[in-house]
Design goal:
The chain is an alpha/beta fold. It has a single domain, classed as Rossmann fold. A 7-stranded parallel sheet has the order 3-2-1-4-5-6-7, sandwiched between helices. The protein starts with a strand and ends in a 5-residue tail after the last strand.
């Protein structure tokens, strides 16, 4: 199975550490796992992953990761994989929209890492978030607390906590 992990950049945060730790484990289990970074920056985590991973790491831009034109750069990548695992915003929006625009059948998994974000306080973004989340095959959260907060905000129960998804 070919899996693409997609994240904003490989800085030093919890989502990034999850990538650093999980990609080599998935590869040891026989999965082909590559990494797509919205921002092509070289970081300590990226250097470390280069040493311990046999997958490719591709960066899309050295400019802003909030540029919606990144959607067009993502489309060729998603067609090569069976499963795409998304982390963080705006990766969430750009990959879902790239899949939708390309009519791809690839399966999407999104891991929610935060109990709150500013989008949830904005009426327009609440509507957009509902559209985006409904296009994802599996939504998982890093903790039960994150799951409960997301369910409350989205009025939606299709979310698994990391304990349920193992």
């Amino acid at each position: 199975m070919r899996v693409l992990q997609v994240i904003n950049r490989l800085g030093t945060g919890g989502a990034e550490k999850l990538i650093l730790d999980s990609v080599p484990m998935y590869q040891k289990k026989g999965l082909t796992v590559d990494l797509l970074l919205l921002q092509n920056v070289h970081t300590e985590f990226r250097s470390e992953l280069n040493k311990i991973s046999n997958g490719t790491i591709t960066g899309l831009t050295t400019k802003s990761l909030y540029n919606p034109l990144l959607i067009l750069k993502i489309i060729p990548h998603i067609k090569k994989y069976d499963l795409i695992h998304l982390h963080l915003f705006p990766t969430l929006y750009w990959v879902v929209l790239a899949k939708w625009l390309s009519f791809s059948k690839v399966k999407l998994i999104y891991t929610e890492h935060s109990t709150n974000n500013r989008r949830r306080d904005n009426f327009l973004f609440k509507i957009i978030d509902r559209f985006i989340y409904q296009k994802i095959d599996i939504v998982t959260s890093i903790t039960e607390g994150v799951k409960l907060e997301l369910q409350k905000q989205m009025n939606w129960t299709k979310i698994q906590s990391s304990r349920n998804s193992r």
